[in-house]
Design a protein that fits this description.
It contains five helices and no strands. It is globular, with a radius of gyration of 17 Å. The two termini are 18 Å apart.
């Protein structure tokens, strides 16, 4: 949903969309191989990618707050998906996306830790209150 929201905001050209699809295709295949070889490593990698995303969205919020990026109205797709108020702005969208990324980071690091302990995920559900 993050990508669909950003596509709605940025309106990339056809070749930019094609580039995104190509990168996703490469990532999917590489990730698949890594996951087959080591789920622990695959989850850890995604956890670190999510950490980088949190950093980037934090910088994005700073740019919105500083006026470097215009705080435009949120697209309808984001308002509907995250149940934001009808008058939500880009800042609200970036804030909830950053929160999603933090959740994804935590879940993937948790999963990697479970595999590191020699367990399977079905043997160790996330603790109550864990994102």
């Amino acid at each position: 949903m993050h990508l669909m929201t950003m596509v709605e905001l940025v309106r990339p050209k056809w070749y930019e969309r094609l580039l995104v699809l190509a990168v996703q295709g490469v990532f999917f295949n590489v990730y698949f191989v890594v996951y087959v070889l080591s789920p622990k490593l695959a989850h850890r990698i995604v956890g670190y990618l999510e950490e980088e995303a949190i950093h980037l969205y934090t910088e994005f919020l700073k740019d919105i707050n500083n006026g470097a990026i215009k705080n435009v109205p949120a697209p309808a797709i984001a308002i509907d998906y995250w149940r934001l108020p009808k008058d939500a702005t880009l800042k609200d969208v970036v804030t909830v996306i950053r929160a999603d990324e933090a959740h994804h980071r935590d879940v993937n690091h948790f999963a990697s830790d479970i595999y590191f302990q020699g367990k399977q995920l079905k043997e160790a559900p996330a603790p109550v209150g864990y994102h």
